[in-house]
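Try this one yourself first.
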C-alpha cells in the first residue's frame, strides 16, 4: 500500500453481488448513456457503459430492478472510484460509490441486497 493512497477511494468492498440491471446514466454535461449494472454492494455499484468518466467525477444513475413482483426504478448520485476500458470497443466498466439516494430508494436497495445475501438458489457473491 502506498503511503498516500486513500483506502476509501479504491475498489468497492464486499460483499458484492452479481446482478444484471438495465439503466442509464447522466453525466455532468447532461449527456445520457445506457448502462448495465453488473455488481451491487452497500457502498456502490459496478456498471458498464459506452463513455468513460474520470475517477473522482460525479454522475447520476437510474436503474430498474424487480422487487416484490414489480419493476422498480431506483436513482442515485455516484462518485466514480474505478474505471477500466474494455477490449474490442465494448465500452468501460466503472465502479462508483453511492453519495446520495432518496430514503425510499435506499430502503428498497438495502432490501434487495439483503435478499441477494439470503438467496439459497445460487451464490451471487463476488
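Now uncover the answer:
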Amino acid at each position: 500500500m502506498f503511503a498516500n493512497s486513500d483506502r476509501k477511494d479504491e475498489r468497492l468492498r464486499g460483499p458484492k453481488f452479481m446482478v444484471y440491471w438495465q439503466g442509464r446514466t447522466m453525466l455532468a454535461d447532461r449527456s445520457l448513456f445506457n448502462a448495465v449494472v453488473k455488481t451491487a454492494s452497500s457502498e456502490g455499484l459496478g456498471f458498464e457503459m459506452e463513455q468513460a468518466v474520470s475517477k473522482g467525477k460525479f454522475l447520476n444513475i437510474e436503474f430498474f430492478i424487480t422487487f416484490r413482483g414489480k419493476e422498480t426504478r431506483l436513482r442515485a448520485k455516484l462518485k466514480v472510484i474505478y474505471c477500466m476500458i474494455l477490449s474490442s470497443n465494448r465500452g468501460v466498466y466503472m465502479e462508483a460509490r453511492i453519495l446520495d439516494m432518496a430514503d425510499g430508494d435506499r430502503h428498497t436497495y438495502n432490501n434487495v441486497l439483503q435478499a441477494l445475501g439470503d438467496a439459497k438458489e445460487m451464490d451471487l457473491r463476488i
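Discussion: Helices lie at 103-118. The CA atoms of residues 30 and 59 lie 9 Å apart.
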